[in-house]
């Protein structure tokens, strides 16, 4: 696929063009650094937005859910969908209310999701999802049986039509405000960090936490340990 | 407003009923602990999902954006919207791929947003938004002038039609898997923490970071300092 994003009118960023990214790898980096997306679908003429996990394989996004979900059922029936993934990296404290902002990376994907029904492809999609959300778990835990597979919808969505926006750096204040303001201005970074693993109460005492969980890399940009309070 | 959530078919949780919450204060707690929402709207028959900041005043959600945004323009014209707010609290490592999950709190609000045009109400909405995303900044930075107000859309959405879902606790594994599994299972908590404030390069040297920023409380459940790695 072309390395450039935004081939259509709908996925061309109109607002905040200077924040629009055109490199497809910006999209991959964002998707690979987040856990969930927000899936939008039209039901009875009204929008419904639902959070759900995802995984990416090349230019295909896999989304899954229970077969009982009305939104997922609509998406699998060929309805158009919109998927947004957003990572907030910090709060921008400006000298005016108007120029306050967030540093972030966000992507919006448009398209028509297809239901993955071929058993081998469905297993592949679930494996991609699993490796994204819980790396190592596909290999180290019991894989889905036929009943579990039947109870799970897997959708595939092409990443062809996507836009990415990104803001970073200090506030963009008006000159007058920079000259006249007497308080601090800058960025308060926001990081996501893993806590200490909490063992299942049904676990025998002393079972070790495997490195893939105990040493799981942080999501997004890795914070300097000195820089987290 | 009634303290109970879910008065309509659309906002009644069908999937995962045991995760559905019926106390309105669960909705408030979630909204007060997150920064952004995902706003869904229908444009030309297709859904569009966009991330944006919000603020809450009682049972009114305020959302804002640039007057150039097509989605916001559609919402202000009385189109139905869906707003989702999601906080991921941890990853649930189960003994089977199928029972892997996330601990989370999520809300989905349905309704028709109204454009806030009355100048006093618009200022109030922006103040609510500002106090939510950057507490203290309304008082301590320059408030919006007429031009800035005109360049900003403020939408108000009632929280009447809303659903909340929440998952917490250890994995819900099959008995056979609990008996037969030989690896660790449990929850890896995910926390959001503030980094060290980064001063604007245009700031005179030595200007102190005010306590409202330097000591800003963490979002969501406060992690035990001993429990964050």
UniProtKB/TrEMBL annotation, chains A, B:
UniProt xrefs under InterPro entries: Pyridox_Oxase-rel (IPR024747), Split_barrel_FMN-bd (IPR012349)
Protein's UniProt name: Pyridoxamine 5'-phosphate oxidase family protein
Organism name: Phytoactinopolyspora halotolerans
Domain of life from the UniProt record: Bacteria
High-level lineage: Bacteria, Bacillati, Actinomycetota, Actinomycetes, Jiangellales
One Pfam family hit: Pyridox_ox_2
């Amino acid at each position: 696929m072309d390395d450039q994003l935004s081939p259509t009118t709908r996925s061309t960023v109109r607002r905040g063009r200077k924040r629009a990214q055109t490199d497809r790898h910006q999209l991959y980096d964002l998707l690979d650094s987040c856990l969930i997306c927000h899936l939008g679908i039209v039901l009875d003429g009204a929008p419904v937005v639902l959070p759900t996990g995802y995984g990416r394989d090349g230019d295909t996004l896999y989304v899954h859910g229970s077969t009982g979900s009305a939104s997922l059922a609509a998406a699998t029936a060929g309805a158009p969908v919109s998927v947004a993934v957003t990572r907030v990296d910090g709060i921008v404290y400006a000298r005016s209310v108007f120029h306050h902002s967030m540093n972030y990376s966000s992507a919006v994907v448009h398209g028509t999701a297809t239901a993955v029904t071929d058993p081998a492809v469905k297993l592949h999609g679930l494996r991609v999802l699993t490796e994204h959300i819980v790396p190592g778990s596909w290999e180290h835990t019991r894989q889905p049986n036929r009943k579990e597979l039947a109870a799970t919808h897997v959708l595939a969505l092409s990443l062809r039509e996507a836009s990415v926006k990104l803001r970073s750096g200090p506030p963009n204040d008006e000159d007058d405000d920079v000259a006249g303001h007497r308080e601090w201005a800058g960025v308060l970074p926001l990081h996501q960090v893993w806590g200490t693993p909490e063992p299942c109460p049904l676990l025998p005492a002393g079972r070790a936490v495997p490195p893939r969980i105990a040493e799981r890399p942080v999501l997004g940009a890795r914070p300097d340990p000195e820089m987290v309070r």
